[in-house]
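COURSE: Structural Biology Practicum
ASSIGNMENT: Worksheet 4, Part C
STUDENT ID: 0417
INSTRUCTIONS: Below are two proteins. For each, the amino acid sequence is given first, followed by its structure token string. Answer the questions at the end about the second protein only.

PROTEIN I
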Amino acid sequence: MRKAFLFIGFLAFAFISKAQPYTSRLGRFKVDQIRGCAPLTVNITSTSFPGNAGCTAGTPCIMNFDGTGSCPPNASCQNVIQFTYTTAGTYKLSVLYQSIGADDITITVDPNTPPPFDIFTCAGDKVEIKITDSFYDSYAIDFNDDGTIDTSIPSGNNQIAMFSYGSAGNYNISVKGKKLNAANNCNANVQPFKALTALPIPSISTLLAVDTVSLQLGFTPQTNIEYHANIAYNNASNFQQYQTLYAANSLTIPNLTLNKNYYCFELSSYDPCANTDTYSSPVCSHEFSLAKASGVDQLSWQTASMGISTIQITRNNTNLTSVAGTATNYNDAAIVCKTEYCYQLISKYPGGATSTSLQKCVTSFLIDTPTPINNTSAIVSSAQVDLAWLQDPAFVTTSYNVFRSQNGGAYVLQKAVPTKLYTDATYSEGYCYKISYTDNCDNASVQGLASCPIILNGSADDTNEVILHWSQYKGWAAGVKSYTIQKFNQQGQLLQTINAGTDTTYTDTQVDAVNQVVLYKITANANQAGVSVSISNEIKVVKGVNLFYPTAFNPDSKVAVVNRTFTVKGHYISKLELQVFDRWGSLVFFSDKNEPWDGRRDGINMPDATYVWTAQGTDLNGSSFKKAGTVILIRK
């Protein structure tokens, strides 16, 4: 039963009252402190007593603060009235008088250890703290860390204090300890706290069967919340408290019989201020059994299905299927003989919680003829091709045989591989492939469908339209659903994705003034779900500069459609130099800045005539080009 201690007001006096002088053993002198945390400074407040003038300049005394004769640095031991103890321990402070001898008092210096405490969140913006320390005689609690002691409680066994904040929010709680008759100089333990109007509804994240006799419950706790874990046997209604959890995110429950029973758990956020619980939804384990028959593995289980969305069944740590949350059995007929299968159940709850059963294994038996491999995908890259294929999961194999044919010839065995992947590093156009395998019952399949990689060709015409054509992909039982064209720039960045449907030709008419060099490849998409794509070889198309220019111009024309200047333009030009010569070969115009000629030389109009021009430069691909021609200057 929890007890709340709210020592407010007069109990805080012990922490804020002024230090009182303490008298030495024989009553000859007084000090302001006899106990405190390191570092502790002690002052001798009086050295006289009735009938004695005390320690003066004329009658000095010898002070010994720690029993070794130590004095403050750079000072003698005569008439010293202050000393700071830096190390925890018990010391004898003595004063030696000239005429009457010595007197002493015991000084206790405690380790300066902030007291530990636990914080428990309550609803209604309240908090409860438990002092887990018993070293100090009393503890001052500042729930707002604002310098004001809100509560003071004595030492005891897990003393409790409660406090109500005005509103939800973030606060700091400070707890300082103090020994009886000690200075109030010990360090405080300050911890952050977030006040909540309502406690959060907890949720179990995982329930895992560790072995046949233990379960592990996992959850994500919130800071400063105390949780109660409750258990029910073979039902999800009659719960009893199992364990209290604080600052933990998991719980292991031993001494169970998972092969005969199932167990349900719920978690609650406990409010110690109101002695109430906020409960999670229950999560339950499985009583799981596994048997085998010819051609089928038989799974059966019992659990409380309330709240379960689906039950996922894994086989050999891979998802096999999912069944309804109310299901209690499943028959797996997709098995291979002489193969061990290990099954596990994972109940899935709304919100993401899961319950995972024990894993149980059985060696299945079945004799059948393996089905051929009729879905092989091919991806061409550089001078190699990567093959990937699907195999009927009802059959298990340790290796596959890859056969290759060249230009319609016989299929010749290339290699046996352990996985459904093969890379032919010597690929060449015209190669096709077939796959066969032998299952773990030594039954051999026939060679499957031929897989012939896509061969892509293409070029740019005089207008820089790119014409693509490619071979149909062969290698899928259900055929090709569609082809996708991917276009990249020279740096490999994807520029465009084009759906070509089932066509095997395409003309790219898109105007692109930036990318002179483009790369293309074709992706075939299968009609059958689950079949990976096949990708063609990649081709590079370099578009031409395609210079264009007028054959005549009239600088004085008033007609808009008549060229008034002469210039040479084109596609993908990085640099261009234009020169114009008269019929005697004299240079009349030069520009390397893409400027037009307006028919003048040095500001003077040139006469009507035929002029020779040359244009040379480099394109965006870094290639040089040069072109020459004539143009007629007409002013009439």
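PROTEIN II
(use this one for the questions)
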Amino acid sequence: MKSEHFSILDAGEHIVALDADKFDKGIIGTIGYAIFHWRRAILIAGIVLTVVLGFFATHLKVTSGFTKMIPLHHEFMKTFLDYQDDFGGADKVLIAVKVKQGDIYQKDVLDTVRKINEDMFYIKGAERGSIVSLFSPNVRYNEVVEDGFKSGNLVSADFAGRPDQLAQVKQNVLKSDWVGRIVSNDMSSTIIAASLLDRDPDTGERLDLRAIGAQLEKIRSKYESDKLSVHIIGFAKSSADIAEGASKVVVYFAAAFVVTAVLLYWYSGSFMLTAWALVAAGIPVVWLLGLLPIIGIGLDPMSILVPFLIFSIGISHAVQMTNGWKLETLNGADSITASRNCFIKLFIPGATALLANALGFIVIAVVDIEIVRELALTATIGVTVMIITNKVLLPILLSYMSFSETTVKKLRGKETAGNWLWTKIGPLATKRGAIFPLLLALGLTVFGVIQMKGLKIGDMGRGVPELRQDSRYNRDVDMVTSHFAIGVDMLQVIAEAKGGDSPCVDRAVQDKLEKFDFTMRQVDGVTAVRSLSSFIGAVTQDFAEGWVKWRMLPETKEQIAQGVGFATRLGNEYMNSKCTAMPISIYTRDHQATTIKTIVEKIKEFKKENDTDSLTFRLASGNVGVMAATNEVVEDADKWVNITLFLAVSLLCLITFRSFRITLCIILPLGLVTLLCNAIMAMMGIGVKVNTLPVIAISVGVGVDYGIYLFERMKHEITQRDHTLQESFVEALKQRGTASLFTAVTMSLSVITWAFSTLKFQADMGILLAFMFMVNVFGAILLMPALAAFIVGDRLRPSVIAKTIG
């Protein structure tokens, strides 16, 4: 004999025989009656919709783009976009070739460099005019000779690798200013660099950075040998590596699914309840993935974890529903009555909690960065459709299920096994019992405030923080930064000059540029500065037969124009064609938050003191300029995200409970958990940035579920049965506490598996979310009743209200 039974055709009573009188009057009762009256049609529609959206989900693409990651409306990015065509973008790729023994001046080594230069030329999306290497025509040397000046390419056009030619290349490099830039100081390495376009030149669509990353990896595998090592860095390569790691999230999704399934079966004691909970949590993921290609959105590697979060949230609500159905059934209700009662009891708190989840996601859309807004939209869609899948389809599915008498006996004994624990902690809802959790909360608040002072905005650590420190990409970053004075981290300030033709030859303009150049060289974190004023000084020195005393700005416009004339041979490195905009390139030690902030503050200080009507310094271009803009946007948005989030969730709780006191009891634990999350981030060296900003919103949105579910039942017990706060708390724990605690444990164990990911940001997210899920439930179970003991008390009891009125 089977212990459980499921049949679409045989479900205990015919759908048209439903008695409307069994449903509560009011909106929820009316909706409930309509749902169960038409349950077969709704179920079939749900199945068809799932199949259709499942088909569309197969067309979902993983996409990434440089401009998706930047705040296009920020002041810095306006400068970036204004001069992108003149001075290139911030999306650069550097390929460093390192000789394991000796120097680069060997025939086979330089042949390899030339071949990589040619391969770079044919990478789809590479801006061919921006390629810089020993073999590119814009890389030249200058020297002073008896007859005047002599210049030429570092590697001559007829280079064949003869010993005399190799010696000449070495001499040319030493005579140039490319040492430390494309040739390392120890002559063991050289760089081939290029900028990437934002759009595919053929289709006009965003470049497929994963495809570019794959092409770059082919170059590495093609030329790396026992004699040479190839190191590749740049946004496109890091994005490709992140996308590759993110694609493995399916492994962690599978692991989490198995862990969740095992724990669900252990908890529910029923294969059928376990299956329906998993199905109910999986359907919104299918719907979400199917809707994204329909509305024209791909899944970015940075938001590829969202479907898993939707699954976790779905499990949380499905457990509440299946647990409620099980309790109703064990109390003697038939399957349809049990489903009907669960719908009526759980729709309001469940829908409220899901709306809180949606608010938690949607408020991060205040961050003016496309990828964040895509993440907000994606997650909001996921939790919104869950109102239909978990609160409508799941009760319908459960209405077709029944337990045998054997299963009922087995589950009834198991279901009440943990009630002794809830009775034990009941005194937390009294003023005397509340003292300890309140003191503990106060201590944790002090701890959080102290620790979060170390929280930074932006990247922390070296390389790309999304990848582990020992990843191939970050090892390549270490190699480049240790061998070259100039790496991929560069901030460009554009000096705009006005007044007449070619205002850049004006001595007053060049004086300001020289002053800025000198000032920035003194800033901690700056490794090199290149500007038109310093180049003109070098040209002046050359005209004085190399005498270092004459490395200075000349006095007259004619002499300055002479230096500017030499600069035009280098293309747009130092100025635009009209000589009205001059980029000052500031190369930084790294792109850590503290480094960027120090440099940007110094630039703003200089700008404030030296900007005039005729000369303006504009921030900023280069990849560090993009990071600076992003950090400022995140810093401004961080407080607004938190304020907006807590206001929205508070308003939702006020509407649901119509009590400021209850709302305060639910929100205060969330505030403490948010504070502790910031403290943990500071302790782990995780900065607040585009990838981590959503963590708080996610945790608050999910954490409020526990408080809403528990207090909804507590309020019912107080107002409808005139129970004391302690009695109501214990009864709420018996009905909802076990499911809440189980859900928190299950979700925490599921996401903690991310800690083993090759992606550091995924591992960090897993640790933070596991912490937040567990601390949130303890806040709801331990701190919320303690707060309620002082804030709410017995004020809502009908008997107390009657005495007060009397």
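ANSWER KEY EXCERPT:
Q1: The longest helix spans residues 622-657.
Q2: Confidence is low (pLDDT under 50) at residues 1-17.
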